Amino acid sequence: MMIVASLAFLLMQASPDLDRLNKAQQLMDSGRCAEAIPILQKLAANHPSAPSLTYGLGRCYFEVEDYAAAIAALRNAIRGMPKSAEAHFFLGSALGLSGSLPEAIQELRAAMELDPQFEPAFRAFGMFRVQQGQYLREALVALETAVRLNPRDARARYWLGRFYQGIGDSDQARQRFEQAYKLDPEDPQTRLGMGLALLADGELDQALAHFDAVLKIDPGLVPALLGRARALYNKGEAAQALAPAEAAHKGARGFEDERSSVWILSRIYRALSRDADAQAAERQMKDLETSFAGEMARIRELNDQAARYEAEHRPDKVAESLEAFLKLRENGEVLIRLGDAYLQLGRFAEAERCYVRASQIGPLTDGLKQRLHTVREQAAHPKP
Fold first, then answer.
1. Quick one: pLDDT at residue 2?
2. Which of 21-25, 247-251, 332-336 is most confident?
3. 333 falls within a domain
4. pLDDT of res. 5
5. Residue 346 domain-assigned?
6. In a 3-state reduction of DSSP, which class is residue 118?
7. pTM of the entire structure?
8. What range does the domain containing 331 cover?
9. What's residue 100's pLDDT?
10. What CATH number is associated with residue 332?
């Protein structure tokens, strides 16, 4: 994170600020970003036209996990250094870690395009796609590119394993998890990957050793708790499986973790002859699946309805159906179809917003690029 060299000339005539800059650089180089922040804040205020200072400040905020402040600083820095792949990468990473995943994808895509050799951007892009459950080819390509650019990056191999796990290819997943673990056997993430691979292959004692190691570092990590519970249950140790299963259920966020934790709890309760608790867990699982199934049925209904209206060339009704669809679930293909309907209706600004959003949550295909070009051309030169 070198900011001194790029600013030394700027500050040559300002000795106190040059001293501050050198001090900030030393602190950052030694990993003491929290101490560097107040110095960089003062320097950035003194030199508002120096984006490298704002970038350094954003980096420090990122390192101390103040993602909101990092996003603000890095956005500001990018205005002055729009071609910096690193700045786009850290902004994308901060956005993703704060939950703004579509915007994160956009920034990381910019970083990859600006510097096709900048491996961290490819790894982060693939990671966020996998975290979203979007097992797209561009995620696979990004992670494979990250591995090619830096074969020693265990994290890239771990997320490649998660990708293959997500598409049900357990052999490929285990291979990538083993590679990641060999590169960095002390990292909790790589140990979690090995535990999941061993659990899938029925190697329960070995899987437990990995889950236990992860939970010593992060006792509340839901995937590790679920892994431990399932391994113990599969060994016939239902009483020991209860505590991690209950902890996983308590910490579950999102449909898949919730369903997985309720599923294993129902089986543990049955094994322990706690029939009332088992029935309650089974009802909860049924409620989860029913609400999910109901939502999916409505989504299918709206999708079929929109298809009929498309065949009848009724873009107003297509738009109405797809708008209702998107209130239930965001989907890149549906956004493109809605954009096409808006385009036919001459609602160019709304069409462009749909296409841009589709490019943020899905691949920026040639067809989508052409649509963006078309809608911008038609908006600029509307037909009389």
1. 47
2. 247-251
3. yes
4. 46
5. yes
6. coil
7. 0.74
8. 314-380
9. 83
10. 1.25.40.10
